[in-house]
Amino acid sequence: MTKTLQGKSRSSGRITLAAVADHAGVATMTASRAISHPNMVSQALRDRVDRAVAELGYVPNRAARALASAHSNVIVVLVPSLSNAVFTEVLGGIQDALDADDYQILIGNTRYSDAEEEKLLNIYMQSNPDGLLLSGLTHSKRVQKMLATSQLPIVSMMDMSSDPAQPSVGFSQSQAGYAMTRYLIDKGHRRIGFIAAQLDERTMRRAEGYRQAMQDAGLSDAKLEVMVSDPSTIALGAELLGRMLAQAPDCEAIFCCNDDLAHGAIYQCQRRGIAVPQQLAVCGFNDLPASAWMNPSVTTVGTPRYRIGYEAATLLRAVIKGEQPARTQIDLGFTLMARESA
Amino acid sequence: MTKTLQGKSRSSGRITLAAVADHAGVATMTASRAISHPNMVSQALRDRVDRAVAELGYVPNRAARALASAHSNVIVVLVPSLSNAVFTEVLGGIQDALDADDYQILIGNTRYSDAEEEKLLNIYMQSNPDGLLLSGLTHSKRVQKMLATSQLPIVSMMDMSSDPAQPSVGFSQSQAGYAMTRYLIDKGHRRIGFIAAQLDERTMRRAEGYRQAMQDAGLSDAKLEVMVSDPSTIALGAELLGRMLAQAPDCEAIFCCNDDLAHGAIYQCQRRGIAVPQQLAVCGFNDLPASAWMNPSVTTVGTPRYRIGYEAATLLRAVIKGEQPARTQIDLGFTLMARESA
DNA sequence: CTGAAAGCGCTTACAG
DNA sequence: CTGAAAGCGCTTACAG
């Protein structure tokens, strides 16, 4: 019914706002208002425009809107892994927090790589995001510079920042590492091993906590550490259990830097006929769903992933909107889950 | 050094292509070419523009590019879950397949909901995507209509389409369900239960396979099915094991529609002192990492998630580029992993 | 190989 | 509350 600008050479063929305005018998900019700022327009016009939108099946062009308004409504989220349940739960929290808003969430998987992080950031910056949600506090020099010059609102997730100017939501990874080690010491263990993989910043903070606790108790021994940079998997946990036992045969307890590793270590113990926790105590970190169900159930540290995502997104939105949030450092804490394995 | 159009009221303040061209002493469109179509420009100019880009720290504005070129370079991916490892592996494959291209991947989590799928699609259509990667073959009427009118290239993932015009990459869920059931029958089991959750289309196809195999063997019995629509979790597997045993106490083997459920069922058996597989055989579906390591290790169906994502993305790219792919139906098959639990 | 001009589809001050 | 015009930052035929 409506004469759209079909003749024009470069038209995409899609229904435009102009066509909607035409159909509703109003000016383009009035149609724009009726859609984007409904309360700036009379009820009658709003209805007419809404009807035209429905009848024509109008879909706004986000690129045009972004270009004209200088607002992309894009939020970039960078996580180090998508196969790690920890981060998919963080994403779930972000998604829920931002559900009602019209944000486009751009999810980037850095794969625990600084180079990949830089690359993704470079690409995503082209979308002119309104804000960034980053995992962790440490970034390469070049990324730091990019972030600084971008002037964009940023909220860091997972660990607490020591810089008050840098909003962060998470918990102290090192305190959690300390607490778990202390728990094992209090159980009477002296020879407590630490198994770690990936060696990302969170793992290293947990290692710091472990080392501090061991040192405070006068139990430090480099032989008790098995740390490799390979990705964490159940299979690797099984293998590292073997390495630990070869390296420190008198080991009484093992603190695995995450649950995957702990699960693998426990399965391997079962295959070798090592009773957990009687002969060897094993504990993990993160409290993945299987940890409560395995036999033995796994002693671990419960971490508020979902809430980290939710609160970080909420905080970022506030900052984007120019509000002055009461707190920009949100420590969500952790919970030691004492179960059967240690 | 360069005079940008700072005075203009609505300028974003970011470095523009015009500024780069200025800096390099060429026309804007030449700078555009040097960046987007380097081979259409002389080496000398290319170098000058490249230098200007570096010196000014120019970041292209994707919205402007999309608007002017009528190409968003956006690919929308819709998955039903981000907490299910199956789909994060699919995403990994997609990411790897498209890594070298300049596509922006928009990941949407439909949470197994038709309404959410429609909502996400509505939002993502605003970005004028070049193509869609969808999970599954069935969609609500309204989504079907949206997809049809959009005329966009679409590749369906996970199961095979019966419609040759609809490109799909995956494997036959029903055949896999049939094969696993047949395996249990061949092991000599008669009373074979089926436990399912979520009841998404893949689960229902596996159920079809189960039912067909049972019927072909003359073993059908509705009492042997326990199906609930709650999300699949280990905890639910543990619970449904109990229900199955209450409903069909003579059950000899249980086919769980996925590994999470199977793990929960096995852990529950261990707690109840039911020997697996001696007293009760239990098998799963998908071969999650834990299945190979648990004790007993879990008999299950290995599925090519990563490759599904990889091949689907590769196929979609070909279609977007207007190529005529030799095959638009790519059956990647499945592998029955016979282990200890069944 | 290089350039001047128009246009992509929206929104934003500025008027009325 | 409503509208005419300019502009967002880029790319695309069309010339030369």
* Strand residue content of chain A: 5-15%
- CATH fold category name of the largest domain in chain A: Rossmann fold
Low-pLDDT parts of chain A are 1-8
Q: What is the total tally of β strands of chain A?
A: 12
Overall shape of chain A: elongated
Overall tally of domains of chain A: 3
CATH H level, superfamily name of the largest domain in chain A = Response regulator
Q: How is the biggest beta sheet of chain A arranged?
A: 6 strands, parallel
Our measurement of the CA-to-CA distance between the termini of chain A, rounded to an integer number of angstroms, reads: 74 Å
Biggest chain-to-chain interface with counts: A-B, 50 and 50 residues
Level of helix content of chain A? 40-55%
In CATH terms, what is the architecture of the largest domain in chain A? 3-Layer(aba) Sandwich
Classified by CATH, the class of the largest domain in chain A is Alpha Beta
Structural class of chain A: alpha/beta
Q: Mean pLDDT of chain A, rounded to whole units?
A: 93
What's the order of the H and E elements of chain A? HHHHEHEHEHEEHEHEHEHEHEHEE
Quaternary structure annotation:
homodimer
Give, in spatial order, the strands making up the sheet with the most strands of chain A. 2-1-3-4-5-11
Radius of gyration of chain A, in Å, reads: 26 Å
Count of DSSP-assigned helices of chain A: 13
Description:
- 2 copies of one chain form a homodimer.
- In chain A, the strands form 3 sheets. In chain A, strands 2-1-3-4-5-11 form a 6-stranded parallel sheet, with helices on both faces. In chain A, strands 7-6-8-9 form a 4-stranded parallel sheet, sandwiched between helices.
- In chain A, 45% of the residues lie in helices and 14% in strands.
- In chain A, helix 5 links the parallel strand 1 (74-79) and strand 2 (104-109).
- Chain A folds into 3 domains: 3-60, 434 Repressor (Amino-terminal Domain) (Orthogonal Bundle), CATH 1.10.260; 73-171 and 306-333, Response regulator (Rossmann fold), CATH 3.40.50.2300; 173-302, 3-Layer(aba) Sandwich (Rossmann fold).
- Chain A has 342 residues and is an alpha/beta fold.
- Chain A has helices at residues 17-24, 28-36, 43-56, 62-69, 85-97, 114-125, 141-150, 173-186, 201-216, 234-247, 259-272, 289-293, 305-320; strands at 74-79, 104-109, 131-135, 154-158, 168-170, 192-196, 225-227, 253-256, 281-283, 300-302, 329-331, 335-337.
- The model of chain A is unreliable at 1-8 (pLDDT under 50).
- Chain A is built from 13 helices and 12 strands.
- Chain A is elongated.
- The N and C termini of chain A lie far apart (74 Å).
- The structure holds a DNA duplex (16 and 16 nucleotides).
